[in-house]
Design a protein that fits this description.
The protein has 336 residues and is of the alpha/beta class. It has 10 helices and 15 strands.
Length: 336
């Protein structure tokens, strides 16, 4: 079978196409014939050796992918041949709180990921995807969508009438926009592109802020909320936007810290958190239970994750480059 793996060097040049034997499922396992994959910023960090150190030589990259069950091993009851499924980000995080062991089962990092024609996973590590989604849309769910669901629904407990700020127009923010609207929230989206802001408006954004023309975008949030501030901010920027996100919140507001696009360390205005009784939640994807809960909501509502760019399997490296360029809207997808 065709597959991609990472060499024992750091950088995107480590992404290499190769041939491997097609795996076979053992007891309790399922063989998935992959149809589509999606990229997350984390995947670029892994390839560049910036995600906890250099990747293991021979590691199959990517956490996100969807496909069809081609074969099952003995004792499998959770899925059947022909089912449309996606893998869960952390194969050992099925329900409850995250544990130290959960991270040791993260696809495309701690263990082999999904960027191959066939993948074998435990039956516990896959979920059935909503029937109305295309393969590309289904492949967009495991990391970005589950992260947004965990942040907004599980941790921040978004409700009707809340104001939610979503930074940028990437995968987490744009599916998060749809989840927030599903719960009756008012949504403010930031971007450096007026064109992308108009696309966000078509998904339900109520207010748009171009942070190039409004570098003080946190003040613009206050203007859009009559000086009150937002209830929730989906923080994907990291250190470069952290303090501005704090300033955009109302007293008692909630920040869901998800991304590190601008860096992983720096000064933080801890006094603002203390004086204004702000709550900062670190979000690291979510469990299989959350994934299945989210899929039920997607099925009932008809939500579709926005796919902005699609590349052929042979163009995987170009998909990485496109992700790093930051020109995409929604998800960057590779199609088989």
């Amino acid at each position: 079978m065709k597959a991609y793996e990472l060499k024992a060097v750091t950088g995107l040049d480590s992404i290499t196409r190769t041939e491997r034997e097609t795996p076979r499922p053992g007891p309790g396992q399922a063989l998935i014939r992959m149809k589509a994959w999606s990229l997350n910023f984390r995947d670029t960090l892994v390839a560049r050796g910036s995600y906890g150190g250099p990747p293991r030589a021979g590691l199959i990259p990517l956490s996100d992918g969807a496909g069809e069950i081609a074969e099952i091993g003995a004792g499998v009851t959770h899925v059947a041949v022909g089912d449309r499924v996606a893998g869960i980000f952390m194969q050992n995080w099925l329900a409850g709180d995250i544990t130290a062991e959960s991270g040791n089962s993260a696809l495309g990092g701690a263990i082999d990921g999904m960027l191959a024609e066939y993948v074998v996973l435990s039956q516990d590590g896959v979920v059935k995807v909503p029937a109305h989604l295309t393969w590309a849309e289904a492949a967009s769910l495991p990391c970005a969508a589950v992260t947004a669901w965990n942040a907004l629904v599980r941790e921040a407990r978004v409700k009707a009438g809340d104001t939610v700020v979503l930074l940028g127009t990437g995968g987490v923010s744009m599916i998060g926009l749809q989840f927030a609207k599903l719960h009756g929230a008012r949504c403010i989206v930031t971007s450096s592109s007026d064109e992308k802001l108009e696309q966000a408006k078509s998904l339900g954004a109520d207010a748009l802020i171009n942070y190039r023309s409004r570098p003080d975008w946190e003040k613009a949030v206050l203007e859009h909320t009559d000086g009150r501030g937002a209830d929730i901010v989906i923080e994907v920027g990291g250190v470069g936007t952290f303090d501005k996100s704090l300033a955009s919140l109302k007293p008692g507001g909630r920040m869901c810290l998800i991304g590190v696009l601008t860096g992983v360390s720096g000064q933080v205005n801890t006094a603002a958190i203390l004086r204004r009784h702000l709550r900062v939640h670190g979000i690291y994807v979510g469990s299989r239970e959350m994934f299945e809960e989210m899929n039920r909501a997607i099925s009932v509502s008809g939500i579709r994750p926005p796919v902005g760019s699609c590349f052929d399997f042979e163009e995987a490296r170009a998909a990485y480059d496109h992700m790093l360029a930051g020109a995409h809207f929604g998800k960057v997808v590779i199609s088989g």
